[in-house]
Amino acid sequence: MQTKNLNILIVDDEKKACTNLKNILHEFIDNSINIAGMAYSTAEAEVLINKLAPDAIFLDIEMPHENAFSFLERIKPFYFEIIFVTAFDEYAINAFKLNALDYILKPISISELRNAIQRLKEKTKYKKFIAGNTSYNELTEQVYKKARQHKITLKGTNTIHVVDFKDIYFLEAHGSYSRILFLKNKEITEITMSTPLSEYEELLPADMFFRIHRSYLVNCVHIKKIQHNNTNHVLLESNHSFPISRRRYFELIEFLKSNDYPNV
Fold first, then answer.
1. What is the pLDDT of residues 21-39, one digit of tens each?
2. CATH number for the domain including 246?
3. What range defines the domain where residue 42 resides?
4. Could you tell me if 122 and 244 lie in one domain?
5. What confidence tens digit (pLDDT) does each residue in 229-262 have?
6. Which residues in 85-108 are b (16+ Cβ under 10 Å) and which e?
């Protein structure tokens, strides 16, 4: 079945940036993409959104009078996908990743843009919009005030989970995928994500999560005890037991002691 062309709105206060993105999309990504309109302020964007009902918008974060997060919070709920265009620092990028938000960096990389468009096509094909699941007020705190982040958004094929770090038991590597076990509504839940374990290791708090093995990243909050048999294992409160690699055993013990975790 042939899928319909994407209808996209580009929002950036710099007209040259809008034109540049449009040209890159058509010349290097997919010339069938329909650039339904371009807006140079959030006020113009709001008018065009109501008029054009785009599938997605490319949205610059730093806009005059109203930034992107305030704008989105104000017009919720909405039913289009968002790709943020940003020149923010790594701290802000981590906030986008933890909230499962799509973004591309300025200056625009063609490979990053191509990947973003591919993800966008999949999302719009299955109509899995998540507008109601994101708090842009909270994102403002994370990005601008560098507030400590405490949760992660996990988007599966048919589900979306917003999970507090403390409710995650462990993450297990499956090639380039990760299996994540967590507590939700007092029930143990799991999801498999198409994100490698190494990326989660960078995103999750370093004082809470420890890579005990190349295949396992565990939440030390949930360590029940360290088991000493023929090999050393971590037993979690979920009753899952995982091996500790030899070279990481003493690092783990020191980590638990220095961060005042019990049951060492």
1. 999 999 999 999 999 999 9
2. 2.40.50.1020
3. 7-144
4. no
5. 788 999 999 999 999 999 999 999 999 999 988 7
6. bbebeeebbbbbbbbbbbbbeeeb
Q: Which tokens in the block code for residue 101?
A: 């938000």
In a domain, 160, yes or no: no
State the Cα–Cα distance between residues 45 and 201, nearest whole angstrom. Answer: 37
Please give the C-alpha separations between residue 161 and each of 168, 178, 221, 256, in angstroms, as whole numbers: 12, 15, 20, 28
pTM of this structure: 0.78
Do residue 77 and residue 125 come from a single domain?
yes
**Together in a domain, 204 and 140:** no
Q: State the total domains in the chain.
A: 2
Q: Are residues 122 and 193 in the same domain?
A: no
Distance CA 169, CA 188 (A): 9
